[in-house]
Write a structure and sequence with these properties.
Two copies of one chain form a homodimer. Chain A is α/β, with parallel strands linked by helices. In chain A, 40% of the residues lie in helices and 18% in strands. In chain A, strand 2 and strand 3 form a beta hairpin. In chain A, helix 2 runs parallel beside helix 3, helix 7 packs antiparallel against helix 12 and helix 9 runs parallel beside helix 11.
Chain lengths: 399, 399
């Protein structure tokens, strides 16, 4: 594939935030022995390089009672080399939707000869293993992993670590276009291939997020993203002393991290998870607070933002209510960061009042934090889980 | 990629019509030295095989005053190895839209280092070359190539021949998803790679053709296709004596042919072009009428129908009016075929009356035919065009 070379990089302590890079070409063909001179503004990433990175990557698909046709389509779009990890929080009573997902995944893996793992978020074995290593922060009162997308993502990242993957990427299960899913994963691989640091993150933004209604309007940016990005940029600006609009992916659900980075970040519950990742990076490596991890600080943390060729078409769920529900936690993560000063707090309060998301005098909620994965004995966790891994595999090998 | 192996093939004289094959996986990863046992029902096509076929393929994009953003997106989705041939019938007066398209294509080719040709349907050089070799069937009274998608397609096929391509595929310019375009081309390549005859055609159908409206409904099949397929199947059934619904792609705009097949078919003007291709094959090689080409008859003509993973999302243009406008010529092509007997004629008349497309007692229009490309001296045409080819190239090589 071909993408823009990173033309501008904003620095924030040890953090390098790259400007948005556009995908120019989904498929750049065979490697050439005698290539035409490449344009300096363009990065060509060869097919085998992409596949090498895909081989080292787990793709996590969190799902909850999603339409089976959409789920199947998303799975079919993930490049073959990646290990698919489905973390499902779908219902098991009345209709066992989890079983339907597992059956669909098994069928797919059977016919395409590929590996995948699937587990339910309320799986007792995983909960027990987490309890055994003292990672109780994502466990609820029932002793099982709590509900919530973030908790599922964290559990899936742990599984990716047990499977010895070097990268982990996330794809939402409600995407209508398998071809868009395929592109997201390539964007992840492309980002990691050009990263200079082993502590890297790739966040995807969509060329257009089609707002599907009568007449079909392709609207650039969702409202939530727009507001989150503005507040995030205010935070960065206040520290650097220069206005910036570098952050375009504050809410990116489609994103990926090197495992080494994924292990050292503090996460947040619910919809705060994606913005909190950036906040954690700024807090840990922005140079304002003490460095969170010496080796990572030395290498630097790199953030790539990639704009896809494909538009994004997903299930529309709810209107203003959802906007508030998604906006509030993300802005809460920024608002309650020790980095956040009065000006940015003012911007956040103003936005939330304008959206009727809070009442005058109120503050956004403080996020519920999830400790970094490396706060536990990962080897011990892997040892406990190792003997159960086969039960999560979707590809049953014939004798 | 992985697609269904062809499970059933209907034979009609020397014509082999394969049942619909579904795409299982867009990206089947690296070639394996020690592969897991493949399922017998699945065909895995390796990346390098696909790219080898793409290298020998021209992708024709007919366009007419299409939104530039859509045009650019479609172009960006075509795999790099293919030669893009844009045939534009866009306006040149007032706003020179053709120039805008050429500029956009040049910019794209410049940054992605790829080859493409672009010409205007009313290009006087091409018209003169056609006149010189006596291929006047697609020329209008002004001596230039007539308006109409079919005429543009035929001119583009001739250009693909001059460029010495072995395969030619068509992609409409009004597609919202570059990732879907990419998949179509892979379906073409996959089809040719499993074909046993050098006379092969691949026709694409969409998993869903999303009917975009409030609430977003993904409706399977368009109305026009449904009716055309029914009439086409009636034609085939009447000859074989067995009911069949094998034809699912009567109107497929996304389709590709080996050049050897493309050269020997009779085409039709306007919206009849895609159904007429099938009718021409049935007439020429169905064994009812004399064989149209002895070598092709010996090899047999193979038709593949591939159902994509990606849904199809394109510009909606018009309602019932368009339905009639698209339906009438296609059914006309079937109705006026010497193969068409009374029963199928009855089915066609019935459908057209139901759609208010004709009045009682009327018949659908007879298609305007375009002679096969091999009716001219192709070598002479190529010689005339050879010295002009550079002027159609979108990639200007720096010294």
């Amino acid at each position: 594939m071909r993408i823009d070379a990173p033309k501008y990089t904003e620095r924030f302590g040890s953090v390098r935030i790259n400007e948005v890079q556009q995908v120019l070409q989904l498929d750049s063909g065979k490697p050439r022995t005698l290539p035409l001179r490449e344009n300096v503004a363009v990065q060509k990433i060869e097919e085998d390089v992409i596949k090498d990175f895909e081989e080292r990557m787990a793709i996590v698909i969190p799902t909850k009672d999603e339409k089976l046709k959409l789920f199947e389509g998303v799975v079919s779009g993930v490049p073959h080399e990646c290990l698919i990890i489905v973390v499902s929080n779908s219902q098991r009573k009345r209709v066992d939707r989890f079983r339907m997902e597992r059956d669909a995944l098994r069928q797919f893996c059977h016919f395409t000869r590929r590996e995948a793992l699937i587990f339910h978020q309320k799986d007792p074995v995983i909960a027990q293993a987490l309890a055994d290593v003292g990672y109780t922060g994502i466990l609820g009162e029932d002793g099982l992993v709590r509900h919530g997308k973030a908790e599922g993502m964290v559990a899936a990242m742990l599984m990716a670590m047990v499977a010895k993957k070097d990268y982990v990427g996330f794809i939402d299960a409600d995407n209508y276009f398998p071809g868009a899913v395929w592109e997201y994963v390539r964007c992840y691989a492309a980002g990691f291939s050009i990263a200079n640091s082993p502590y890297a993150m790739v966040r995807v933004l969509w060329r257009y997020k089609p707002k599907v209604s009568a007449g079909m309007l392709f609207k650039k940016w969702g409202r939530v993203s727009e507001i989150t990005n503005r507040c995030m940029n205010s935070l960065v600006s206040s520290k650097s002393g220069f206005e910036t609009d570098i952050i375009k992916t504050g809410n990116a659900g489609e994103h990926a991290m090197s495992m080494r980075l994924a292990q050292i970040l503090t996460y947040a519950s619910g919809y705060a998870v994606e913005p909190q990742e950036l906040v954690s990076i700024f807090e840990g490596f922005g140079g304002v607070l003490p460095m969170a991890h010496q080796i990572a600080a030395k290498h630097g943390v790199e953030i790539f933002q990639t704009e896809t060729r494909n538009p994004h078409l997903h299930e529309e769920k709810g209107g203003h209510h959802l906007l508030v529900e998604m906006l509030l936690p993300g802005l809460g993560a920024i608002y309650h960061s020790p980095l956040c000063e009065d000006e940015t707090r003012g911007v956040i309060i103003e936005e939330l009042l304008r959206q009727d998301a809070i009442k005058p005098g109120e503050e956004p909620p403080k996020p519920q934090f999830i400790a970094p994965l490396n706060s536990i004995d990962l080897k011990k966790f892997a040892t406990i889980m190792a003997e159960h891994m086969e039960s999560y595999s979707a590809l049953e090998e014939e004798p």
